[in-house]
Amino acid sequence: MKLSKRASGVRATAGPLWSATQRALALLLLCGALPLLAVLWIVVRATSRGPFLYWQLRPGLYGRPFRVCKIRTMTVGADRNRANGLGVTRENPDVTSAGRWLRASKLDELPQLWNVVRGEMDFVGPRPIADSLVELLSREIPGFEARFRAKPGLTSVGQISIVENRVGHEVVDDWRRRHEAELHHLAHRSAAYDLVVIFLTVAYLVRRFCNEFGARLLRRTSEGEGSTGAAFEAVGLQLAIDGRSRDAEQAGGLARGAVADP
């Protein structure tokens, strides 16, 4: 894919100073995240076979391919399934057990800070997507190629506007909404706009974490209540059986007494 470097209504960068600042901040954040990455390395390697990091070629600025880095959340070889390139949900059988909560928390995107350090990505910009999805959306959404006239981003306005990825026949409609949001950012991008999107992304991630944690807590509580209720029912049933047994024994004793003493 080769695109012109000039396009009306699209600003490829928010300025060289902001670009340099992002690369420096990404390096600091990546260094600070090393202990967390070490823990995640142990979790991923302990729960599934395969490498910790996953690298894939994806189109970047002006359509030039670059190697995007993520924490592996799927089984080895799952990327050969072309359908996975069009969208993956947490219920997908190729997603690993650790991969489900990594994808929900977006921690699998953390290594992409290295792509920002290398200047291949920005903090805010169109999300890098697989070639198979690019081909589909370029056919279905007019002007979709405009997204490649800016660097891909760790987050975007479209990313925080969608709670869950759509798959199947809903993919195109899902990406139409994302694309409209991306175009607005690309036409008005600035350091201030990026900072607002970053703030909204943090709020979005906190909300997702709370929802995920709260849902699990409720499930465990309900399971605990169900187990407790079942235990009480079993105890009550046993007491009822014991009571009936005693009543039967007493009745049997009275009957025997009545037979022995006519």
Give a quick summary of the entry:
Helix content is 56%, strand content 8%. It is mainly α and 262 residues long.
SSE diagram, text form:
Elements: H1 16-32, H2 34-47, E1 53-59, E2 65-71, H3 97-105, H4 113-117, E3 122-124, H5 131-140, E4 153-155, H6 157-161, H7 171-188, H8 191-260
Parallel strand pairs: 3-4
Antiparallel strand pairs: 1-2
Walkthrough of the structure:
- This protein is mainly alpha-helical and 262 residues long.
- It has one domain (16-213).
- Helices cover 56% and strands 8% of the residues.
- The chain has 8 helices and 4 strands; from the N terminus they run ααββααβαβααα.
- The chain has helices at 16-32, 34-47, 97-105, 113-117, 131-140, 157-161, 171-188, 191-260, and strands at 53-59, 65-71, 122-124, 153-155.
- The strands form 2 sheets. A two-stranded antiparallel ribbon has the order 1-2.
- Strand 3, helix 5 and strand 4 form a beta-alpha-beta unit.
- The protein starts with 15 loop residues before the first helix and ends with a helix.
- Mean pLDDT is 80; it is low at 251-262.
Distinctive features:
4 strands; 8 helices; 8% strand; single chain; two-stranded parallel ribbon; 56% helix; 262 residues; mainly alpha; two-stranded antiparallel ribbon
Main-sheet strand order equals: 1-2
| Portion of residues within helices | 55-70%
Strand content: 5-15%
- Main sheet: strands, sense, barrel: 2 strands, antiparallel
> What is the CA-atom radius of gyration, in angstroms?
29 Å
The tally of helices reads 8
Low-confidence runs: 251-262
Number of domains: 1
